[in-house]
Amino acid sequence: MQHSQTAQSLEDRYGTRRRASFDRRFAWIAAALLVAAGIAFLLFSGWQQPNRVAFQDIGFTKQGETSLDMKFQVTTEPNTPVACAVEALNTSKATVGWKIVELPVTEQQSHTVTTRVVVTNPATAASVRDCWVIEDRAAD
């Protein structure tokens, strides 16, 4: 019984019991805030990516020594303004032609595009480097 009183006396004197409950409460609040911040980050950071743009190379045809016609397919949500970067490479994989193509807005989800790329040296390969949704310029 005396041991219990001594332990109680030490707890009262140094406040160990209160401190433990305070620390536990603080840990739960901090954990809840971190979870809420993580969920908010996922919801508002573009994680959902509603306007994804997919693209696939179909091929290219040389048009003499100074240009080629690149053909590719783009798939995105209908009525979405899209731009693509097309690149032509030589045998050393150096860029010899480059073009940004703004695609016409269509109601189709997928459409095929052919564009002419001017090259500085003979090209042995051509591909779509990337496609992206064009942001609304009227909002600027």
UniProtKB/TrEMBL annotation:
It comes from the Bacteria. The chain crosses the membrane at residues 26-47. Keywords: Membrane, Transmembrane, Transmembrane helix. This is DUF4307 domain-containing protein.
